[in-house]
Every structure is written in structure tokens, then in C-alpha cells.
Design goal:
By secondary structure, the chain is α/β, with parallel strands linked by helices. The chain has 2 domains: 205 residues, 3-Layer(aba) Sandwich (Rossmann fold), CATH 3.40.50.150; 92 residues, Adenine-specific Methyltransferase, domain 2, CATH 1.10.1020.10. 35% of the residues lie in helices and 16% in strands. It has an 8-stranded mixed beta sheet. Strands 1-10 form a two-stranded parallel sheet. Helix 2 links the parallel strand 2 and strand 3. Helix 3 packs across helix 6, helix 4 crosses helix 5 and helix 5 packs antiparallel against helix 6. The longest helix has 18 residues. The chain is globular. 42% of the residues are buried. The structure holds S-adenosylmethionine. The site of S-adenosylmethionine (SAM) has 23 residues, from helix 2.
């Protein structure tokens, strides 16, 4: 199943901070995983689901602490939130947004914070400021209006409906478990032969998630991940113009590191919408010693990580998407 080249990347119906759409080809080129029998692709922080949906493995275990994301994807998988229901809802409420503007957006937000409807969540996610998902301490969605009353044009509605249809197709007929649980529980379910892709909130970057994330969480995650009985790949930010993520050198020493430069478009502040070096920390699952893989590992030497290190050009891939990838 992996590694593989990707020439088309599907886009999920919801957006979130740290969404990895543009990094899918880089991740799929970097990981070696050949599932057998009941082996699963596991994501303890699945967010928008873009990585799993593009991979579409036969068995998958997806989990997130955000219950609304989990509910939305379960509804799509179980054919409760169908493309036609999404179209009907977005056309109707899109018209009301056009008439009522910000006032109507805040009415839907209030309704969502009391009822938690997945269609309201989809509406808010696609019309809020910058596609951010953020909740206050009481668990209420608090992202302001994106200032576009005419947001749900026919073309935009069709685009979202097609994304719902694509997500449903990618899950259909496959044994996927979608769970609302903290990452510790998900890692505890990993077995030999599974592969775990981890994309936690970034320390010092995404402080506005459903759950908070700090240095101690990140250190515990590294410790538990290194003890997994299977392969893994973890996404982390490595460095930007201003600073470097020293957590990597301190906690992931000796793990294979691949790097590519990426621009984040989703973020609540300008500081979060910038160019950043993305690291993928990998421990391959049962690497196969084919000629292609031997050549590959020769190019991907392990980095001796220590405070003060920098990445050499050898591990750096300037194009995350590869030469041919198209994005839906
Ligand atoms: C960087 S995002 C994942 C992005 C995803 N890979 C994508 O491409 O869309 C991190 C996710 O971790 C979830 N999260 C935060 N704290 C968590 C926790 N303690 N346990 C499980 N999930 C958590 C957030 O709800 C968020 O969806």
C-alpha cells in the first residue's frame, strides 16, 4: 500500500488548523507499510480525515477528542449525512445567510452549541473565519463569522456536496472504526502490523484546539509512540523563519526524519498562516529490502538530532506534493 506516488489528492468536507491536504503526497512517498489481514491504519488525531480518506485502507481506526468531527464522519459513513441532504441543507441555510448575514451565522452557531447537529457544524466550518475549529473552555464553538453572507454560492455548495460524496465513497465497504477518545486510548489499541500516523496539535502553534496541548503532552506522546509495537509516522513542525522546534531533538532522537517546506493557509492569526518546515518522524513497519527501498533508505539517512542541529539539504524535499499531484 505504501510508499506510493499520488497524482490526485481528494479534499475532505471539513477544514481544520494543521490540515495535511498538501502533505499527503509527501507522507505517502515517505512511509513503508504493507498491511496484511486485519492490519489497520491508525490515526489518534484524525482532524479533517484527509490522510486516511486519501489512503482508503481496508481497515482503519480513526479517533479524535473533538466529538463533532467524529459525529460528522460517522454520519457520512452510515449514510445519515448524504450528499443530497447536505445540498438541501446548504442551499436552504445558505439563502438564509445571504439574507441575514452575520446575525444568521450567530443564530446557527447558537443552535449548534445547544444541539450539536453535524449539518450545522458543516455550515459553520465552511462559513466561519478562516476555516478554523475552535471551542471555548465550556466547549462552545466560538469562531466568528467569515464576513461573506453570499458564501454558499451554487458552485461552493456543489464543491462541498462533492466532498461529502467523495468521503462517503472512500469509506464505503471498508471496515473503519471512528472513535471519540483521547490519543492515549487509541495508541493502546495498536498491534503489530498496524501503522500509526500521528498529527497532534503543534506545541506553540495550535493553542486553540478542542483540547489544549503543551510540552508535557508532547513529551508523553513521544514516549508512548516510541514504545509502539508497530511502525509510525509523526508530523511535527520543524522550523520557521523565527524559531526551531527543540522538542524534536529532545524527544525523538534516532528516528528517521524527512522534511518538506509547507505553507499553512488555515489559522486564526497571520502568524499561523506562514511557511514552515514540516518534519515527518518515521519508524517504518517491516521495511522490505527491495532494490528500490535500499536506494530510498540510502537517501534518507537518520539525522543525529541534538540541540543546535540543522537539517541538511539531503533530507529536505522542497516539493511536498511531488511533481504531478493535483488537489481537488
Ligand atoms: C493537527 S490536527 C490533525 C489534522 C489532520 N491530520 C488533518 O490533516 O486534518 C490535531 C487534531 O488533534 C485533536 N486532538 C487534540 N487533542 C487531542 C487529544 N488529547 N486526543 C485526541 N485528539 C486530540 C484535535 O481535535 C485535532 O482534530
Amino acid at each position: 500500500m505504501l510508499p506510493r506516488d499520488t497524482d490526485w489528492v481528494g479534499t475532505p468536507p471539513i477544514k481544520c488548523q494543521g490540515i495535511k491536504t498538501k502533505l499527503v503526497p509527501f507522507i505517502f512517498r515517505s512511509v513503508i507499510w504493507r498491511p496484511e489481514g486485519d492490519d489497520r491504519w491508525i490515526e489518534p488525531f484524525f482532524g479533517s480525515g484527509v490522510v486516511a480518506l486519501n489512503l482508503a485502507p481496508a481497515r482503519d481506526l480513526l479517533a479524535d477528542s473533538n466529538e463533532h468531527i467524529v459525529r460528522l464522519y460517522r454520519a457520512i459513513k452510515d449514510d445519515e449525512l448524504t450528499p443530497s441532504r447536505a445540498r438541501e441543507y446548504l442551499q436552504h441555510h445558505g439563502r438564509l445567510l445571504e439574507l441575514g448575514g452575520a446575525e444568521y451565522y450567530y443564530e446557527v452557531r447558537e443552535r449548534f452549541n445547544h444541539g450539536g447537529s453535524s449539518l450545522d457544524f458543516l455550515f459553520l466550518n465552511r462559513s466561519c473565519f478562516n476555516g478554523v475549529i475552535r471551542f471555548n473552555r465550556k466547549g462552545a464553538f466560538n469562531v466568528p463569522f467569515g464576513h461573506k453572507p453570499g458564501r454558499f454560492t451554487q458552485a461552493y455548495t456543489t464543491k462541498i456536496v462533492n466532498q461529502v460524496a467523495w468521503a462517503a465513497r472512500q469509506m464505503r465497504g471498508r471496515r473503519w472504526q471512528i472513535l471519540h477518545q483521547p490519543w492515549e486510548q487509541t495508541l493502546g489499541m495498536a498491534r503489530k502490523g498496524d501503522f500509526v500516523y500521528l498529527d497532534p496539535p503543534y506545541i506553540g502553534r495550535h493553542t486553540d484546539y478542542y483540547d489544549s496541548w503543551d510540552e508535557r503532552d508532547a513529551a508523553r506522546l513521544a514516549e508512548r509512540t516510541l514504545a509502539l509495537p508497530c511502525g509510525f509516522a509523526a508530523s511535527m513542525w520543524l522550523e520557521n523563519r523565527h524559531r526551531r522546534n527543540d522538542h524534536i531533538a529532545e524527544h525523538w532522537n534516532g528516528v528517521e526524519l524527512r522534511v518538506c517546506t509547507h505553507f499553512y493557509h488555515v489559522g486564526s492569526t497571520q502568524d499561523l498562516r506562514n511557511e514552515i518546515d514540516e518534519a515527518l518522524l518515521i519508524r517504518q513497519d517491516r521495511p522490505h529490502r527491495t532494490r528500490a527501498n535500499s536506494a530510498r533508505s540510502a537517501r534518507q539517512r537518520r539525522l543525529p538530532l541534538r540541540p543546535g542541529w540543522r537539517c541538511s539539504a539531503m533530507q529536505r524535499s522542497t516539493s511536498c506534493s511531488g511533481p504531478r499531484a493535483r488537489f481537488a
